[in-house]
Here is the input.
Amino acid sequence: MADPVSQKDAALEGRASPNKIGRENIVIRTMEDDLKGPSALKEEKSAPAAPSFLSKESKILGPEFESAPVSKPPMPSPFAAPSAPLARIPAKEFPEIPARPIFKATPVWMKLGAIAFGVIVLVLLGLYSYWKVFIQSEPAIPPPAATAPSLPIAGTATTTAPIAFFNKLPHKTVTLDLPSKISPALLSALELETAVEEKISSVKQVKITYQDKPLSTEEFVQLMQISTPPDFLNNYENEFALAFFKQKEGIRPILILKSKDENLAKSQMGAWEKTDFVSDTFPLFLTDAKLPANLPSFRTYLFVNQQVRYLNIGIPFASLNYSFYNNFLVITASSAGMFVVLQDLTGQAVSLEYLKYLESSINRFVDN
Here is the structure.
């Protein structure tokens, strides 16, 4: 049996009211539809209408169950400006950074050495700073004032370089330390030294000391028993040179003194040779022979441009010679000894033939 309500609704649907028919044929146009164009109108016309049963259900169930309107995609406006194409930004190129070489690790021993060196430098700087600040900068403490008279203080001894009496000579050097400072002790020591065999034409310097202290010129002259004029030794230094020249006939002594004033020394020797020069210096020959009663006077000869005063004393192959070279006074007991010393002092050498000729000339000169 049909529901009376549903039958009533069906009768209503079958009847169309005149208002409803007229409304369906009315078309409403808007400015938006004109902008969309005829294609949009065709699409709206071609779109199917919603089923009628949906409208019935919406009317029965209420407005909350009405179907949502179908959304349409927005159409682009014909008046809108075309969008500009997206600008493509090129990728920035960065310069390549060269790879640095990989440094090798420093060895441990080098690190330890550097640390040790730094420590040493710091220690030295600290010591220097301590010395500079605390030691060097200390104020000098004045000595206390003397309340009692003090004794005179002896002057400090000064040492000077020994005098060089030779250049290349001597060939040998010996030192005689006397047991006592007396004349017999000196003469005995010298006689023993003359007995020592040496090479021919060699020069041996003899240094004389007493208690390891060298004798002065005045002490040597006194112990040798050589007499000198008054104030003669005041013009000479305290050092002297004694040497032995070895020739075939034996030992011939050489004595060298250094004068303070050469001109004064020459005048002193000129006056001394006219008096007792030969007898005063005869102990230098170290012989027991006696001097002749009558002696000739001194004569002069030249050797290597040096003037030599010469006198024969009557002893074979012995003669008294003296000469000056700069401030040196050279006294020899033979002419051959004088030749050797002057060649050494002047640095001038002569041939053996010339020496032999000179000796024979001196002998002939003396004999006449």
Remarks:
- The CA atoms of residues 149 and 324 lie 52 Å apart.
- The first helix runs from residue 4 to 14.
- The beta strands are 172-178, 203-210, 213-214, 236-247, 250-259, 299-303, 306-312, 319-325, 328-332.
- Residues 8-22, 49-61, 64-68, 151-157 have pLDDT under 50 and may be disordered.
